[in-house]
Amino acid sequence: MQNCDLIKLIQRTEALEKEVEALEQEVDALKADEPYICCTEDLNEDKLRTENEKLKYRLNILRRAVEKETAASVQAAKTAAAAPSQSEPAVGSQAVVGQPVEQV
Q: Helix or strand or coil: residue 2?
């Protein structure tokens, strides 16, 4: 066996031993009905990160909706400003109060 392979095996073995120790601690904590702090913190952090991502996604959806509504209301205001008002008579027509207006 080469020296390099032996070093890799030793490193892998040490890493696995550390993992086994952590798992033993978790099992002992579960047997005693105590929350395993390390894992609990990791789970909470993961949950918070997931919730944060969901909120960011929802915020982007809401921003786009607001932009769309704003653009639509601006467009409607421009259209309303460009169209003549029905309450005012058209230029060149004569309206007499109290008499019906003829439709052409």
A: coil
